[in-house]
Amino acid sequence: MGRRITIGALALSALAPFVILGVWSLGDHWFFPALLPGALTADSWRAVLNGRLAAAVATSGAVAIATAAVSCGIGLPIGHAVARLDGSRRHIAMALAFLPVAAPPIALGLGLQYGFVQLGLGGTIAGVIAAHVVPATSFLVIYFAGVFTALDRRIEDEARSLGATPRQVWTRITLPIIRRPIGDALALGFLVSWAQVPLTLVIGGGIVRTLPLAVYDYLRSGEARYAATGALLLTVPPVLALLAARRERVAPL
Amino acid sequence: VKLAWLVAMPVMIGVLYAAAGALGLIGLDAHGFTTAHLARVLGDPSTWRGIAWSLATAAVATAAATVVSAGLAVGFRGTRLGDRLARALAAVPLPMPHLVAATLGVLVLGQSGLLARIAYALRLIRQPADMPALVLDPLGLGYMATMAWKEIPFLTVVAIAVLATRGTRLEEAARTLGATPADTLRRVTLPVLWRGLAPASIAGAIVIAGGFEGAYLLAPSRPLALPLLTYDRYRSIDLARRADAYVLVLLGFALALIAVVALEWVRSRWDVE
User: Which of A32, A96, A234 is facing B5, going by the closest CB pair?
Assistant: First the structure.
């Protein structure tokens, strides 16, 4: 009995958010205490295609793709190096790598803002990407450290002892083995940027308007319909990533 | 280790800039070295109230989420259909961004939100004002509930993994040696679970305490949570007060550093098995 109730509560917690956001994204003339909207309209969804939300979606997507690529390029070699450490040095390295994630994002943003403005990056897309790369790289170093710790390093050592140069080991051995983790890492980097708020707010200075910032503005100005539509869009990439990860786990290695 | 410093470098740079800003060396209204900002912020009760509020709400939300997650992991660890269904459902909200969770918090818990409308339909309240304030309330009830809900999927996934990888073998050993199921749960399962969950819980609490979007939409304006207080000072109309934000930035970094050291310490103590 208790189990059934728990499963019911879990189902509610899993599915209700999508239903609630979905109804809210369509609801018109919907005032307290009505349980359901008085009318339905798809204007907020039309705005995704060619209106107020379209530009925000495009900006967010471009920033997230660039962030994923750059942070993966930096995070992979560093994660590889961290995985080769052991004992206390490994813990120190992991703590350092974790620091940008643990630091309050608003503190990180304000700490970096002055330098970014001096470099001419304040209020620019490049600046926002550079700021997003900081926590994204941090996540990816931790991720790749895990991947390379699980990877049998003797394979690489074997190749070296058979005369392969370090570059050959990378291109012929290591990279082919970790092709799938690289895909996962790109997705992770994308998601870190996709949902980012405070760094965009501070470094972008209100000029770079990503989807999360648009959702904020709508929520604060009482435009719940647009906020709900934006929030639903925000869940699309992470949900796709989760589904892909599940499928991968089921597939034979 | 050298390369790891590279990852932490933006934080270091941030600390340096913030320190320079806090001491009046750089910034919009900098007039050279001064400790006025430090003294003002450190002497301001709202600084400490903000820190205390952020830490307390993060701790309560995380503690609640940890208990629920541990319960779910222990209760649904089997291979029956219900177990697998429960585990799958529990993980669904996992990828939801904090901002989306906060948006839901506003739409559901607000005084004219879904919960209030349901209460009206059930004739429990007659107008929005009858609904207890759960959003922007001083206690942060809606904030904590939303953050806990956001944490549960993550902690549950970790708890299930911990039980699957470390729990089963030890439990079987305990049972073989004659422990009762209740003893096994109390002396084997829960301690194993706690050791595996503690680092994840600490990490979750760090993210919530420093998090911006949830607090921005759900937390009260009095006391102002530390991230909000920092942002508020940074946007102050009084230019002379903007440098106060840098002092708060330094405090935020200091708290994060303490938390990370604690986290790695817990890991280094318990990793060896």
Answer: A96
Q: How far is CA B176 from CA B184, B192, B273, in A?
A: 11, 18, 20
Distances (CA, A) of A103 to B3, B123, B186: 19, 46, 36
Does the beta-carbon distance from B14 to A241 stay under 8 Å?
no
d(CA B256, CA B269): 20
Kindly indicate whether the ipTM for this predicted assembly is greater than 0.90, answering yes or no.
no
> Roughly what angle, to the nearest 10 degrees, separates helices A52-83 and A224-250?
40
Query: Helix axis angle, A125-150 relative to A88-102, nearest 10°?
Result: 150
Amino acid at B101: A
Give whole-number Cα distances, B164 to B15, B81, B271, in Å. Answer: 41, 17, 16
The residues with which A27 forms a beta bridge, in sequence order, are A40
d(CA A187, CA A183): 6
* Structure confidence at residue A45 (pLDDT): 86
Which residue does chain B place closest to A94, by CA atoms? B4
Using a CB-CB cut-off of 8 Å, the residues of chain A touching B11 are 99-100, 103, 108, 111, 134
The pLDDT mean for chain A works out to: 89
Phi, psi angles (nearest 5°) of residue A39: -150, 165
**Chain B residues with CB-CB distance to A141 below 8 A:** 4, 7
